[in-house]
Amino acid sequence: MSENATIRGELCWGGVPLTQLAERVGQTPFYAYDRARLAARVAAVRAALPGGIGLHYAVKANPMPALVGFMRGLVDGLDVASAGEMAVALDAGANPLHVSFAGPGKRDVELVQAVASGVLVNIESMREVGLLASACERLGLPARVAVRINPDFEIRGAGMRMGGGAKPFGVDTEQVPAVLKAIGHAGLQFEGFHLYPGSQNLKGALIAQGLLQSHELVLRLADDAPTPVKHVNLGGGWGIPYFPGEQALDLAPVSDALAAIQQRMASELPGAQAVLELGRYLVGEAGIYVARVLDRKLSRGQVFLVTDGGMHHHLAASGNFGQVIRRNYPVVIGNRMDTVAREVASVVGPLCTPLDVLAERTELAPSEPGDLVVVFQSGAYGPSASPQAFLGHPRCAEVLV
Amino acid sequence: MSENATIRGELCWGGVPLTQLAERVGQTPFYAYDRARLAARVAAVRAALPGGIGLHYAVKANPMPALVGFMRGLVDGLDVASAGEMAVALDAGANPLHVSFAGPGKRDVELVQAVASGVLVNIESMREVGLLASACERLGLPARVAVRINPDFEIRGAGMRMGGGAKPFGVDTEQVPAVLKAIGHAGLQFEGFHLYPGSQNLKGALIAQGLLQSHELVLRLADDAPTPVKHVNLGGGWGIPYFPGEQALDLAPVSDALAAIQQRMASELPGAQAVLELGRYLVGEAGIYVARVLDRKLSRGQVFLVTDGGMHHHLAASGNFGQVIRRNYPVVIGNRMDTVAREVASVVGPLCTPLDVLAERTELAPSEPGDLVVVFQSGAYGPSASPQAFLGHPRCAEVLV
User: Fold this and answer.
1) B251: closest CA among B262, B260, B261, B239?
2) Chain B within 8 Å of A369 (Cβ-Cβ)?
3) How many contacts, defined by CB atoms under 8 Å, are there between A and B?
4) Lower Cβ count inside 10 Å, N or C end of chain A?
5) What is the H or E stretch that residue A23 is in?
6) What structural domains does chain B harbor?
7) Is omega for the bond preceding B29 within 30 degrees of 0, making it cis?
């Protein structure tokens, strides 16, 4: 975190010192997302991508409307996981031609909404073919579709695997030809393929390998496509470092793999564009969660900083969002950045449950009630992925700065 | 689940067949809580309690306003964990004299709200003494207080320990005399003690042991009380069986322990009432979660039932609410209760994440889209403890029936 600017001992986020930011928001706890960091991250990814590769933002990582609107201006398209997210994307001004919708359990009405909106639907089951055909007929509009593939390989290194083996996501490779045939028969507007092998992968070489395998698979399956492939969404799943010992992703091998894919696609799938779908990687490091210390308690030799925020706003930091072993997100006392002294303290929330922990026995600047605890790496899967109503405490605020 | 009534092969809840209930609610997914089961459970607990022991409902387990209103009529008081829950309790018609408020991080405004409402505040830190004294002075109202004790012993058998050792909850035993003295000096209206050693305990003998130890501790600390003890909240934490092999709690040893406590309290703390605070145990088994099968997918030999509900409504059933190892809640196909045939299937939700699992490879009646999946033991820590906004899907409904 050496890159973090400070003014008079305060962390600055979006150029604003933390206590001023808290006053501007008008309450704690809050999440703050930094436009400059978002833009810098998109620029860094662009620099690593060969020309012609599309970059999409996966809204699921952070659906705050203002942030989605900001990201829309930086990327080539938005990927959504529900009609709710689709509405956010369209309200943000996204061109429906550059919005795609994936999800293993799309409701009937969501498929109709997708056709009525003109977005691309990533088909994940034969059921969706029939429902989309009905929607087309009723609405007198085309259904733009791609097939989401559940590949016949697994990608290594992913924090969560979302492809390979038996999965509810996408169409098994073996079943793809039949689905393509049905798409052709139903008169849907076929545009391409989608794969998403896994998420939170910190190994560039393994991501590269997954991209190459995915592309290979698409080339193989494209033979059965009813019309030429225009769009190949190769997924994302690029990770960010959360815990001690984790290293930032090395993009060099990813870049090389994409260059090879780009070259081969030009000859074997002329007219098709490869697209990446990144969520956490674009926004995760641009966000912080800020809570205020309400009380400082010493219990049998241990220091507890009891804050007004906790797992109800930040489930992932509490370790209850898919983690098997709880580890601390990076945490600091944001208004005491110049303090050299350190004490071991646990940061907990206001909830009557031992699950409500933001940091367990970690080294922090000694602090007092009124101080501001900052949890870094909080730009993705924050408030929308947390049980905000739990125990009836107020919701957090969000600010784009 | 032999006790569940069915009509024409459908599970009945609150006396209503499941498909009719779904039509009444007007949507899936929904939670349904059965008044008769709630009342029967309260009656069973009353039958096991010696006369004179008070029974409180811990609103945190299920804060649905209609349910809180119903429970208010059955129990002797309501325990709340935030000003938000306090508002639900008071709106439900609870007498503030019988409402108590606990929480390790009460905000300043919450303490003022508590004084203005006349509820009992369980003090968890010296900080609260000063804030309550200020509130009293400003409002010209008394502050009713008890001291929440972090005991110097741990209770065994609890799924989550909330007392003993270093904890953010309550006041360490060793510090209680000083806090009692401060309460006296500040002129707060002292009423008693509160302990909550742990939750989800399925061992009656261990709960009994915890109650006896807690009572013993209260007797010891009562010597330093500024005024006679009127109220001793001995907590709850009684568990319900969720997983195969778990047995319902045996109340006999608990009942015996409470009788002994009652007898001894009459002589050593005359005028004091012992109170139990139960949440999950009163409501957990009275609730079901119901989701509709959207799709039936066969992926590489495994059956996936993709439903319109999932972890965003029922985080606990997905295994992401404090569980270390994910296990299946009891699940059935609620409109096929008469079907004898079984298949192994996984029940998943509509979210683009492998965390979105309601049941993994479990035996179910073979089912089709349109069928209703029922997750039992869902009356506590359901919607309020789940990330409902995750991925932008609709919220679940709730019905008291």
Assistant:
1) B239
2) yes
3) 211
4) N
5) helix A18-25
6) 6-32+285-400 (2.40.37.10), 63-278 (3.20.20.10)
7) yes
